[in-house]
Amino acid sequence: MIREFVTINRGTIESGKTVIGNKSYLMASTHVAHDCIIGESVIMSNLATLGGHVEVDDKVIISGGVLVHQFCKIGSFSFIGGGYRVVQDVPPFIMAAGEPLKYSGINSIGLRRNGFSINTRKVIKEAYRLLFREKLSREKALVEIKNTLPINTEIKKIISFIENSNRGLI
Question: Fewer CB within 10 A of the terminal residue: the chain, N end or C end?
């Protein structure tokens, strides 16, 4: 669903396309710049703006007034609080808020609403505790995650996202 005054720019020669997934909801006055890829069931609230080449995975909620810098990636099932700037990649399954934008916990409500079990949510929370709360280097946190947690689909997704981040993590 695309509401009033939404702007969507087509792709440039570089990638050739801008993609918006099924069941996504772009509220009034949102902007999707050139060469963006938006997954399925994404919600962009009023005045949210994506710079060029941004990638937004499935089931992300971008609150009102959020500005996303070009080339950033936002992981699936994440939630970005209203009015903040995204200048680095936002990993999957988390809530992000604050200035500068930072990890604010896992998106437990969104995960619960989407059928993630309590055990899966606990494992995701533990992975992010190691990454963001233990004051480990990113490399050491990844080693700990790989060595101490069950490598389920969600943990694989977290590891892959972190390893493939080009802009760095929030």
Answer: N
